[in-house]
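Good morning C.,

I know you're traveling, so I'll keep this short. The sequence:
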Amino acid sequence: MAVKGLGKIDQAYDGSNLRIGIIHARWNSVIIDALVAGAIKRMQSLGVKEENIIVETVPGSYELPWGTKRFVDRQKKAGEPLDAVIPIGVLIKGSTMHFEYISESTTHALMQLQDKVNMPVIFGLLTCLTEEQALARAGIDEAKSMHNHGEDWGAAAVEMSVKYGPHCDF
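The tokens, ready to paste straight into the viewer:
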């Protein structure tokens, strides 16, 4: 049984002053596109302005850690720093060990990246055993749809930016 969503949050968060980046892989584009759209929709519902959601791409999920670091650095150098970034990728198990190597290495690299960029890096990597699972988690498969996990990632980006981001007051 799958548990849906982030659960009850302790307050409503205002994202109107935030700049949030999304960097996504281009593999599994139907699923990726739905996840990106879900994240954007949720962030906008929390007040993040369309012009403050910056979207970039990389070839695949393995490239997400390096691409994310360069994306964050480039925004900062341009004088338009981000408050959080959401790397989005989809890995689907095949018949070789490729899935395990890419899933583990990408997960660890994204986790460690938070300290390097000093901002929230939201874990937007689906690691699914089947394409059907990925479709369900992207809210695409109507019969088996859980919900769009991109929406959770967008909400997490706003909450983490407001509470713990590089521009919060504490």
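Safe travels,
E.
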